[in-house]
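Example record

The entry below shows one chain as it appears in the dataset: sequence first, then structure tokens.
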Amino acid sequence: MKYDIVIITVTKDKIDLDCLQSVNELLRSTDLKVKFVLVDNDSKNFDAHTLVKKHIPEAVVILRDKNYGFGHSSNRGAVEIEADYYFFLNPDTKINDLNLLKQLRDFMQKYPVVGIAAPGVRYPDGRMQETCRRFPKWYSPIAQRTSFLSKDFLANHQRNFLMEDFSHDKRRMVDWVQGSAFMIDGKLFAELGGFDQRFFMYYEDTDLCRRCWQKNRPVYYLPETQLLHVYAKDSAIKGGLINGLLGNKMARVHIISWLKYTLKWFGKKI
């Protein structure tokens, strides 16, 4: 069966029960044909199949034998079921607006040139997260993780990168959106070959959005549709760049992905 929307969530040792419960509530309330697929990267903290089936009996649960990363496992989930649209959702989110998927789908149907549409994302306390951004410069990770550059340079870089020069309460086209929650046209996703699996984690969302733009399929940010996200920055470096890289595996993964992204896109225009 072909579905209107397939929700795909990838887990590795972390999942929020609020996420499962909110997805279940959405499935029970929508008139759309929506399927939930969870791809688990060999979690040790819980039995993914038992846990998900307890909350969403009709869910498709794919158990993997190791951690393949976000993009690789997202692709695995997408090939399981054909859909007009795929909605990628982090396991530490909560859908507090049951019309969210319909609003995103209706927008993309009204404007079929759109490749990706992403909702506004808020912290549990109501603050807006900066989930839409401009494409990074080759030096962006250095600017974000060090303090030896001038304060004015760092502040201007951060303001530009996070798009702090516009109200995040307004709908607009953007360079890219975070992979924590976004909808993509199913045919386009297949045409692009899904996420670039060279990125284990980080920059796969930036890369995907950039390839959408290459196809003249714009990326949109729709803050009138919203969900909650408990944001944990696993790659954050503390105690200086070198010490952080030595002691933080995800920080090293982030830097490796940055190098891959830079080598792939440096000097290329959309």
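Notes for this example: The chain has ten helices and eleven strands. The longest strand covers residues 219-229.
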